[in-house]
Amino acid sequence: MIGWDNVFFKYLLLESIESDEDFRLTSTYNPRLYSILNISGILSPLWVWETSSNRLVLIDGYSRYGWAKGTGCYTLPCLVFPSSFSKEELLKMRILTKSSESNLSLEEKANIVERLLRLYSAREVERNFLPLFSFPSKPGFSKVIVAFTKTSKEFRCAVREGIIDERIALVLATWDEESRHGMLRLLKKLRCSVSIQREILESVEDLGRAKNIPYSEVLREIEVVLGDQNLSPREGTERVRHFLKALLFPNLMARRNSFEKTLKSLELPYGVELKPPDQFEGDEWEMKVRFSKPQELLDKLKIFNSKISMEVLDKIFYGDRHRSL
Amino acid sequence: MATDIDPFDDVFVEESVRESPIVRELRKNLPEARFYCLSSEPCYRNSLSEDFSKKLYVIRFKGRFLRSCPATRFYHCCGYTILHFGEHCTVGCTYCILQAYLNQPYIKIFGNLEEMLSEVKGVLLQYPQVLFRVGTGEFTDSLLLDPWAGYSSHFVPLFATIPNAVLELKTKTAFVDRLKDLPHGGHTIVSWSLNAPSIMTQEEANAAPFELRLECARRCLEWGYFLSFHFDPIFFFPGWEKEYALVVRELFETIPPRKIVYISLGAFRFMPELKGRILEKNPTWKFASGEFVPCPDGKRRYFVDIRVGLYKFLLEAIRSYAPDICVYLCMESGSVWKRVFGYSPDEVGGLPRILDDAVRKTMKVGMNCLNSAASLFLRKPQPYSSI
Description:
heterodimer, A: alpha/beta, Conserved hypothetical protein from pyrococcus furiosus pfu- 392566-001, ParB domain, five-stranded mixed beta sheet, two-stranded antiparallel sheet, 15 helices, 7 strands, 55% helix, elongated, B: alpha/beta, pyruvate-formate lyase- activating enzyme, nine-stranded mixed beta sheet, 13 helices, 17 strands, 33% helix
């Protein structure tokens, strides 16, 4: 049981209160909270721990504390926890209270998990706490989350600003610093959707694994492709995707090019299309003919027939048989 | 040595099968193991980090033991009938599809042997005009537990008495000793998965080395068994031609083609979730990072031109030693068949028919059978060639 009977309310001098990084779970500027504070001032007391050496350590209320400092307040309403409380006990209270808040950012969740690991075993945290934050309760996943707390301020800021998706950020947290920074630079430039971020991430990882090179090397190649040209984010994104596809799928791209070239050389009538199965996989091809009159259909089919032979179809269906892998 | 797959420390036996001949055999062959009695099968999930590698579960299986291969309508299926006697495997292949397919982390076998044998006999004899190719290697390795559980001592003699069926035991192990004196009557095929030497060494942790697999195949041949080989999954990597050619050469230098019923070829393919599972264990694993494309059955396969290149090369290598041997593709489209063989299975009566004919020709079994078991069990329609 928490010894609430010993907790008391008091106005404390702002300058007498110290911050402590162990208790600080958020470094996010919360504009909504600041607006409310501007309107009504501090509505709920801050939590402060009076240690055995008479220091006053801030447990909860870092944003309010920051606001007060900026507005020149001298005293703050505080709930004071006496030295009979241990730091561990207060840390646990702080973390569990914070955990119950909705809309926690990835950074806040990661900070909470990192502190929880000081109080509970990794297995307990993974089993009991990760699902509360919508993280998978997989063995070892807490390490990934902790890795995120160790990333650079710039990287975490990009996640906060939505430049990097939170799930992507957790994958990147496991990368080496140089590669992560390379991806950060790229995603800042491209400002692309989550699904494209994922596609680029997976392509870079696949290329790195397949060629046995660090991801940073793949990213350097991408930077060269992007060059210094003034491309819009959309143009840049398309160029990067095309470049990665060409590297990852050289045979598919060659086949696609050969298919398009053959088709173009046939000069099929306008409105007649031949469509291969997706990625040329499977047996279902499609032929589409657009027409507005019966005679037009007959004419188009006649022209189509005159241009198509088994040899041509063979090339369309199977590409260049003699091309080596 | 890689073939020393350790026996189990703990065997959990469901109460209702404690008197099973399988359990008796396990008690005899695992004298050091601790045996526990369970009222029912426990429910563990793959997400738990507990190590189950030395635990064996013997349970009562309540479903049907005979079932069809899980085919899809987009690719040609061999029409093999599965005899489901257990699940999971400890051979430890990095690429194993069971990692994504099964949600229990331990190996389990079915102890209600009498029900299993009675169902097999009942179904197979009920359709004397149907030729059954039955295999036990779909959800586990057929011989992985044989030294301890001895299923082959029950299966092989049973199939010897069924005129319209053959049994295929698929393995990567060297556990063939039990087969030596069994009355197989020419109705059992022992088969091995083969791969490029670097794959067999690096990616199949507890499997028998290639030379030992061939040595075991040679011994089975001496004991009168028929053989088959499966190049599945085939990988595309720098130097693949040289490595696979070497395996084909050594295979035919050791085994005469006339006793090989068929050889299958299947390029590496995987459900997307398998890649994640493998990378969790080995983040630098490169074999799922090639030119893989999404396919209509939800799996990822090498881009079709790569597969065709792999198959044509292996087919040519095999045919250079054994021009008449039956070679088939596992789960491939009609157009891939057409490019590799010049015909699609549906043009010659379907893939099950091709394999039934191979059984008839090589093993002389099912000579009077008119239908394939696929007509009974294979519920999904098979694809047609696009041309």
